[in-house]
Amino acid sequence: MDHFDYRRGAMHVEQVPLAEIADAVGTPVYVYSTATLTRHVGVFRAALDKLKDPLVAFAVKANPNAAVLATLAGLGLGADVVSGGELLRALAAGIPANRIVFSGVGKTEEEMRLALDKGIYQFNLESQPEAEMLSQVALSMGRIAPVAYRINPDVDAGTHAKISTGKSENKFGIPYADAVAAYDRAAQLAGLDVQGVAVHIGSQLTDLAPLEAAFEKVGALIEVLRDHGHVIRTADLGGGLGVPYDPSQPVPPSPADYGAMVTRVTADWDVRLLFEPGRVIVGNAGALVSRVVRVKQGATQPFVIVDAAMNDLLRPSLYDAWHNIRAVKATEKRVTASVVGPVCESGDTFATNRDMEEVEPGDLVAFMTAGAYGATMANTYNSRALTPEVLVSGGKWAVVRARSPIETLIAGDSIPDWVKA
């Protein structure tokens, strides 16, 4: 559920007309709903209400906007980060360090020092060389690093290949078969407190079966590790729960279904459970609003050319992702068209042969379910400014990231003296 709906024929976000924001800020623009964020956090936490003190650590990569993170911090969420930059963003937004988990395969010494200095809750290690590096960094600082190993369970999540992370050919984690040896070695490294196990098999999962299979393997591994003398106190079950992008496709499992499965599978683990939801919290809370530049008749169908492009919303080009595209001003007229942006790439296509509401030049359209992996993946290709972001709460709204003038982008370059000469 989200808080984008039509009132008197015009799409609103909560109590604010999208057209009001578009006219004031310009397009394209990302718009987020506080009420939707609040609802989604409540639903997810309610799904885990039978668990003892779970840590819900929002996946910052899904949406790192400071206002969004501050909203989630106020709702009690922690953070799952994958870079030093994300760690600093989370801290700046008010998320306490003792609710932050650091994941990712490429942590540098500098990032490890930063995280140790701030006192984060857990490092999710992905290789033995990483464990050895963290040990040395921790020793040099006189600190103890709380760690878990991320295990690759070789479970196919059944999702898009580019967002699958739990198969043996993926770069993430250590092979399940090597886990005991890895823990035995980590236990011998000074400066490390080996406290947990972590797993994450992919994103946008639409079936609980792969998750349950992975969790069953984690449970079995915890027993084996304890038999080998390791004290396992935490289990990070990752994120990945899908959201409904395409209404013609089956609805993904609900957080309640997910929570019931987790509660059942982990009943005798005797650990603190950690979760890394991202998309399921922010996906439906955001929309990308764009204006139609023109409609061009092609050989077989019209092209609706909008002022948003692949640099603003990369998912369709990168993942062949599907986003519902709605007219901001309601109409009953329908058309089959392709929706494309102005970037000089054939991949700058949002939809092909889409049955959609008929729109004309100057009309506004909204790309729905764009709150996750939208603005965070935006770039300046074709020398286009980064997309601004707006947060709405009831009848109030504010720009929470302004559109930087293109002159600012140009000013970031420098011309060497020999070129000027």
From TrEMBL:
Binding site for substrate: 279, 315, 319, 345, 373
Single annotated GO MF: diaminopimelate decarboxylase activity
Superkingdom to which the source organism belongs: Bacteria
Residues annotated as binding pyridoxal 5'-phosphate: 240, 276-279, 373
Keyword Lyase annotated: yes
Pathway given in the UniProt record: Amino-acid biosynthesis; L-lysine biosynthesis via DAP pathway; L-lysine from DL-2,6-diaminopimelate: step 1/1
Modified residues (N6-(pyridoxal phosphate)lysine): 61
Annotated Pfam families: Orn_Arg_deC_N, Orn_DAP_Arg_deC
GO biological process terms, semicolon-separated: lysine biosynthetic process via diaminopimelate
Enzyme class: lyase
Catalytic reaction list: meso-2,6-diaminopimelate + H(+) = L-lysine + CO2
InterPro entries noted in UniProt: Ala_racemase/Decarboxylase_C, DAP_deCOOHase_LysA, De-COase2_C, De-COase2_N, De-COase2_pyr-phos_BS, Orn/DAP/Arg_de-COase, PLP-binding_barrel
Cofactors, names only: pyridoxal 5'-phosphate
Ranges for domain Orn/DAP/Arg decarboxylase 2 C-terminal: 30-371
Residues forming the catalytic site: 344
Domain Orn/DAP/Arg decarboxylase 2 N-terminal stretches: 44-282
Keywords: Amino-acid biosynthesis, Decarboxylase, Lyase, Lysine biosynthesis, Pyridoxal phosphate
EC number: 4.1.1.20
Statement: the UniProt record of this protein carries the keyword Amino-acid biosynthesis: yes
Family stated for the protein in its record: Belongs to the Orn/Lys/Arg decarboxylase class-II family. LysA subfamily.
Record text on subunit structure and interactions: Homodimer.
Stated role: Specifically catalyzes the decarboxylation of meso-diaminopimelate (meso-DAP) to L-lysine.
Protein name: Diaminopimelate decarboxylase
Gene source species: Sphingobium phenoxybenzoativorans
Gene: lysA
